[in-house]
Each structure stands twice: as structure tokens, then as C-alpha cells.
């Protein structure tokens, strides 16, 4: 897996799983989304983009199937 922190007001980080061809993106204030069928070149271009948010809107959004991946909840003992 490849991962990168992004300097973006929209995106916090990106992780690419080459075996599964999935791109996980953490959006600031919105959580994690996983995009399927993404080529490695798209991840690399996102990581190198001047504006990660603009690149996302132009090259990923609406072009790859994405699904919300809810954060795992912690289980705590009942009081």
C-alpha cells in the first residue's frame, strides 16, 4: 500500500492499494471514501497535484465508483 498526506483544505490523506486497485481518501470533516478500479497513475497524479481538491474533482469524482467507509466504532464497557 502507498499512502500520502495531502496539503489540501478538502483532503487530508490518500492511500492506494495496488492489489485491489482501490484509492481511499480521507475528506476533512466528511470521513473516508473508497474508490474502486483506480489505476496507480491516478493516485500518483493526485499526490503530485498542485491542488488535490481540484484534481479530485476533475479526475476522480464521477469517474470511479466510490462508497463511504464509516469509521469503526470503539466498543467501551457499559457503565
Task: Please characterize this protein's 3D structure.
23% of the residues lie in helices and 34% in strands. The protein has one domain. It is built from two helices and five strands; from the N terminus they run ββββααβ. The protein starts with a strand and ends in a 10-residue tail after the last strand. The chain has 79 residues and is α+β, with helices and mostly antiparallel strands. Helix 1 packs antiparallel against helix 2. The longest helix is centred in the middle third of the chain and has 9 residues. This is KTSC domain-containing protein.
Key terms for this structure?
single chain, 79 residues, alpha+beta, five-stranded antiparallel β-sheet, 2 helices, globular
Write the layout of secondary structure elements.
Elements: E1 2-5, E2 11-17, E3 22-27, E4 31-36, H1 40-48, H2 52-60, E5 66-69
Antiparallel strand pairs: 1-2, 2-3, 3-4, 4-5
Short recap of the structure:
The chain has 79 residues and is α+β, with helices and mostly antiparallel strands. The chain has two helices and five strands; from the N terminus they run ββββααβ.
Instruction: Tell me the fraction of residues in β-strands, as a range.
Output: 25-35%
The tally of structural domains comes to 1
Biggest sheet, in brief?
Answer: 5 strands, antiparallel
Termini separation comes to 39 Å
Report the radius of gyration as a whole number of Å. Answer: 14 Å
- The 3D shape can be described as globular
Secondary structure class reads alpha+beta
InterPro entries: KTSC_dom
Domain KTSC: 7-64
Protein name: KTSC domain-containing protein
Pfam family, one: KTSC
Amino acid at each position: 500500500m502507498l499512502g500520502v498526506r495531502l496539503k489540501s483544505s478538502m483532503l487530508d490523506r490518500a492511500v492506494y492499494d495496488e492489489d485491489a486497485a482501490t484509492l481511499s481518501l480521507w475528506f476533512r470533516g466528511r470521513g473516508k471514501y473508497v474508490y474502486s478500479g483506480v489505476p496507480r497513475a491516478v493516485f500518483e497524479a493526485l499526490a503530485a497535484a498542485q491542488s488535490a481538491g481540484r484534481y479530485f474533482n476533475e479526475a476522480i469524482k464521477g469517474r470511479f465508483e466510490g462508497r463511504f467507509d464509516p469509521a469503526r466504532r470503539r466498543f467501551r464497557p457499559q457503565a
